[in-house]
Design a protein that fits this description.
The longest helix has 27 residues. By secondary structure, this protein is mostly helical. It has a single domain, classed as de novo design (two linked rop proteins). The chain starts with 9 loop residues before the first helix and ends in a 9-residue tail after the last helix.
């Protein structure tokens, strides 16, 4: 598995899509008026994709894995926030389940990438 740009990483592409989906939920529901939750969800969804990008640009597997760990944690945070959206009536159960499953898939992909990096003999320019 080789990437020349973070944009080539499938899980970053998935994170970008979930970020767009979260924004669509915000602007098309009463969540747009719940400023606290709206802002938390925006930050968490952005953190998923941004930490993948930042970790990749660090040029080392150890640092990349560290940022992937942050990204994975943000994915869990977003999933928790989705439960609050469901509880407050901003999402139907169907909408909730669909987005929740996407966050779980992203989380698994991040974990798989972390495992790959841990087992890779290529450690990046900083860890040769």
């Amino acid at each position: 598995m080789r990437f020349s740009r973070f944009e080539d990483i499938t899980v970053w592409q998935d994170a970008r899509k979930i970020n767009t989906e979260i924004w669509s939920i915000i602007v098309n529901s009463e969540l747009k008026n719940d400023f606290g939750l709206r802002n938390q969800m925006t930050r968490a969804s952005v953190s998923i994709m941004d930490n993948i990008a930042e970790g990749f640009e660090r040029d080392g597997n150890k640092e990349f894995s560290h940022f992937l760990s942050i990204s994975k944690a943000s994915c869990g945070e977003l999933r928790s926030q989705l439960y609050r959206c469901l509880d407050r009536g901003y999402l139907t159960i169907e909408e909730f389940e669909e987005v929740k499953m996407k966050t779980m898939t992203i989380s698994r992909k991040i974990k798989a990438l972390m495992t790959y990096l841990k087992n890779s003999s290529l450690k990046g320019s900083k860890f040769k």
